[in-house]
Automatic annotation (TrEMBL):
Protein name (Swiss-Prot/TrEMBL): Sensors of blue-light using FAD
GO terms, molecular function: blue light photoreceptor activity; FAD binding
Taxonomic source organism: Fulvimarina manganoxydans
Limits of the BLUF domain: 1-91
Pfam families: BLUF
Top-level taxon in the UniProt lineage: Bacteria
Length: 122
């Protein structure tokens, strides 16, 4: 199982549009057994994605190509034994809540790209 955390800038995204997008993203992610958490502060999106290795890596590659995201920064990519979000789908959190959760996960698994198979950027 793969864990990815990233941040990106979404300058032209309103909070109301974000809420609708999260609902659509949640349904799409659940179809691929991907779960996690997402936060938006009006300018920056921070997200944790967990699920099957290839599904999470492909979703991250899609996010990097998505024009709604700019300045995408991968903060963590690692293999995990179990999702922190089992049974939750895609949870919307405040940026401070997601930061605290990310800190706990990073303490457990480390930061950077530590997955055994490098991420293919394409």
């Amino acid at each position: 199982m793969r864990h990815i955390a990233y941040s990106s800038i979404a300058e032209d995204l309103a909070q109301t549009d974000f809420a609708a997008l999260v609902d659509a993203w949640r349904a799409k992610n659940e179809a691929f057994d991907v779960r996690g958490a997402i936060a938006f502060d009006g300018n920056m999106i921070t997200q944790i994605l967990e699920g099957p290795d290839e599904a999470v890596d492909e979703l991250y590659r899609h996010i990097r190509r998505d024009r709604r995201h700019s300045g995408v920064v991968l903060t963590a990519r690692t293999d995990i034994a179990q999702s922190q979000f089992s049974g939750f789908g895609m949870v919307r959190m405040s940026p401070s809540e997601l930061y605290l959760m990310s800190s706990v996960i990073l303490d457990r698994h480390g930061a950077g790209d530590t997955a055994p198979v490098p991420l293919d950027p394409s």
